[in-house]
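Case study 2.
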Amino acid sequence: MDVQFVPTEFLLSTDHWISAEELTGQQVSPVVKTALQYEQLLTLALQEAYGLPSSVELRGNTDWVDKDGNSGLRRDVLIKAGDTVRLVAATLMPHAVLARYPWLATMGNNPLGEMLEKHDAHQRGEFEYRQLRAELIFPSPAETTPLLWARRYRFFLADSHLLVTEIFFPGVLERLGATM
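Prediction:
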């Protein structure tokens, strides 16, 4: 599947991201809201919803630098159920985190959530949500799906954090929410 990953500026932006409270005020179906707010391992939820093994495919580790000079490693992955990509995810890992947890830079196709559970004490922060135009992900989006949902959160590790952003493909949230 031909997909694009959103720019790092999008991942770091503070514009248009909303809290769980604000999500409640939006016109969002209860099924989609349930899926967006799901806190357990997403790979296991996909496996259950689709009845197929889930997997992660690393698409790249690249360096990033923000406008304030913070920098680190960006990990872009495709998340699949069976052979079909169901969402894309990007994780921003500051150099301070990588210095303390170097294994993060070598995860390859392993799911981040599962690796964190095996390795280190961590805590997931609050979810933030937003919709984005499908053409940011798909070079030629279907006209029936002009918007996609994204959510982001931080994994706190000791005195640092990772920023994880997940962008769900059409129909995935409905499928996930119906099985939760």
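DSSP finds seven helices and seven strands in the chain.
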